[in-house]
Specification:
2 copies of one chain form a homodimer.
Chain A (H helix, E strand, L loop, with lengths): L41 H10 L1 E5 L4 E3 L7 E7 L2 E6 L5 E7 L4 E2 L10 E4 L3 E7 H10 L1 H27 L2 H18 L6 E3 L4 H8 L3 H13 L3 E4 L2 E4 L2 H8 L2
Antiparallel strand pairs in A: 1-8, 2-7, 3-6, 3-8, 4-5, 4-7, 9-11, 10-11
The structure holds a DNA duplex (30 and 30 nucleotides).
Amino acid sequence: MKSMGPILQDNAKPGERDHAPHIANCSTCTTRHLSICAALGHEELLTFDHVVQHRSFPAKTVLFEQGAKADFVFSVSEGTIRLFRLLPDGRRQIIGFAIKGDFLGVAMDEVHEYTAEAVDYIRVCRIPRAGFAVMLDEKPHLMKKLHQLAGREIHNSQDQIVLLGRKNAEERVAAFLLSFRERLARIATKSVTIPLPMSRQDIADYLGLTIETVSRTISKLAREKLIVVVPDGIRILDVDHLMALADG
Amino acid sequence: MKSMGPILQDNAKPGERDHAPHIANCSTCTTRHLSICAALGHEELLTFDHVVQHRSFPAKTVLFEQGAKADFVFSVSEGTIRLFRLLPDGRRQIIGFAIKGDFLGVAMDEVHEYTAEAVDYIRVCRIPRAGFAVMLDEKPHLMKKLHQLAGREIHNSQDQIVLLGRKNAEERVAAFLLSFRERLARIATKSVTIPLPMSRQDIADYLGLTIETVSRTISKLAREKLIVVVPDGIRILDVDHLMALADG
DNA sequence: AAATGGCCTTGACACAAATCAAGCCGAACC
DNA sequence: GGTTCGGCTTGATTTGTGTCAAGGCCATTT
């Protein structure tokens, strides 16, 4: 829970930290339609190519840290990223998980409000924040799109507030599984099994529980035949029942 | 906790539900510099006057309800509003309290994501959402301002997520008192005493606690001489100690 | 193939906050 | 001026989740 992984060095030359070949350009990017880039026209995509830096990192890499100056915003192309804040005594609260298509930097903060760390192998598009800010000023439709993303982020946060403030362990776990399934469905990873790349500890820190409670609750849901636990994921057997649980 | 208060009728004639004289216009509005209107120039304020509807309502009035079509956005001029969501079985989670200068409708949702209910006597500026959307498209600086507000809302939500996910009762109450004090300070109600217009039940539903735990925790903080309980509010005696508590 | 370590599960017990219950206080009302 | 009622506090008890502890499983290392 305390291991922060290697800190990203920002002064490295393009490509020297890479673990996979770069994507040639934005026009052929398979994540485009899912991401903020969907708001860009053909010509804009070409200019975008010049500022965007495609990067990939292994699990546990710290993309950026809470409190650090926000020099870049990111669009996730592949993998899972945990976003969290730490209390002085080490308690951790995961704010969210970013997956393919998600944008980090919606609020356009000067300083990062949370730490972002790769859960598994990830690929991201890194965009200098200053340049992106200029684009926003020049392209109202991009600004509008960003604001839509902000609205969605506000909704998700409020859902999480209700979950953390008023739901019990069983309701929290059920809601988490369903919402993660929903998000995976949007990015078209059609599969009966929901892959869960994050650890039980991550889930616990996301749901405001302990790892033991998460484990016990998953076992309980499995015992009740609502889900089946499989390697690196779970399968939902009774969606309706689970939804009823999740909604309180 | 279940009392919803009178539902607002939207088809009433201007003024017929009012409990205080209207504000003449936006140019003389004392809340302007605190609100989204601060982004508007002199001329824009004049056009704003034509679409803005000044209204006031007594305590417990429901401004709008979760799930209802969002025909208006609001700017709060006076009083306190609780924003909450209900679970099917009646559990309530207060998402936030809106005070003077706050804007309701940052996300520009089609449908309200929560219910808004007057805590005490309130005055608001009501703006048709469709018209406001047009203004946003025409005035990039207004859009930019709205997005800034969205960013702040995201931050506040994330703070609340950390509070609800990982803080104990004492830390929650301390954080609430300090953050409410901070917000009151911004609207220049300089006073050693922090007025708390909302009930203990409201505070409990905001902090994910029960009314008894809130009451006991406030008593405990008072016993430890960190605060003093006064009619309709509290006074902070030891800010530093309280901050250390609140931050975990 | 034995040893190590990370991750997960399960059991026993502890505790913070919830629940249940009683009573206080001030405002509103007859 | 007594009664009622809503909001708040405080005490006793319960309970859901946290904490502590042990062991299983699997991948990796030696």
